[in-house]
Amino acid sequence: MLKFLGLSFNQFYGSIPPEIGHLTHLKLLSFSKNQLSGLIPHEIGRLSSLNGLSLYSNFLKCSIPLSLGNLTSLIYIGISNNLLFGLIPNEVGSLKSLSDLRLYNNTLKNMNALSGSIPDEIRNLKSLLNLQLDNNTLNGSIPLSLGNLTNLTTLYFSTNALSGSISNEITNLRSISDLQLSENTLDGSIPLALGNLIKLVVLDLSINKLSGSIPLSFASLTSLTTLYLYENSLCDSIQKEIGDMKSLSILDLSSNKLNGSIPLSLTNLTNSLKVLSLSSNNIVGEIPLGHGKFSSLIQLILTNNELSRQLSPELGSLIMAIPDLNQDHLE
């Protein structure tokens, strides 16, 4: 009896035959990276022993069949990079063994994409480690029930139409290391409790409508290497506590409403920081770059601020090496 059917990385075309439902002993079905089109047959819901379903990178143009909810042994679903449309069915909440759900990038010139809200039934997927729903047209708010997924390590909701605030419930995700919510219309302030997610390595909240100040609690994110907060409406000054984020490699706070001066504590990051972008804010004062000690710095972008010309002589070689700095408004 057939248990594994792997036909990925070929040039198969046409539709998935409904007769696939006869292979009731299958544990793995992989048709990824082909040229398949048409529907995902509802007969796929008969494959009750299936642990892995991999259909990514085809031209499947359909909604997600409700019968997928019958596959309660599923651990992995990958149907990204297709032309899926319609809602994520509530039946997905029945897949309590699921650890990896990837439905990202199902768009075709904004005509085809997964839409509607993220179903509240997602709260049942307590084994979930990886949830990728980015690059669709999902709307509504981030469900409060997401806080139940305490084993989640990766969460991608970027490039959708999600709105509302980032609720405190998201801070229950104590195992999360990669959190990306960029390119939505999220508003309100950044929750202080995000600083409790001490396993975070990547945090991307860019291109939203977030306001208020950058939480002081971010100083606790000592494992964070990448922080993207650009293109929001964040205000107030950059607090000195940002210098406590000792692993930070990329810091992009550009295109906000930040004011005050660049904190001297940034010199604590001389061995880690590779990219620093503070452009298009209202930052004033000097550039305290630690007398040229930023040995790891590759990009320094400070354009469109109100910085002064009081530079240390030791910085001469750094300034000449980074063209973006020369474009600033230096008084």
UniProtKB/TrEMBL annotation:
Record InterPro entries: Leu-rich_rpt, Leu-rich_rpt_typical-subtyp, LRR_dom_sf, Plant_RL_S/T_kinase
SUPFAM superfamilies given in the database record: RNI-like
Highest rank taxon of the organism: Eukaryota
UniProt keyword list: ATP-binding, Cell membrane, Glycoprotein, Leucine-rich repeat, Membrane, Nucleotide-binding, Receptor, Repeat, Signal, Transmembrane, Transmembrane helix
Major localization listed first in the record, in broad terms: membrane
UniProt keyword Transmembrane helix, yes or no: yes
Membrane topology field: Single-pass type I membrane protein
Keyword Transmembrane helix among record annotations: yes
Subcellular location(s) per record: Cell membrane; Membrane
Protein name per the record: Leucine-rich repeat-containing N-terminal plant-type domain-containing protein
Organism: Citrus sinensis
Organism ancestry: Eukaryota, Viridiplantae, Streptophyta, Embryophyta, Tracheophyta
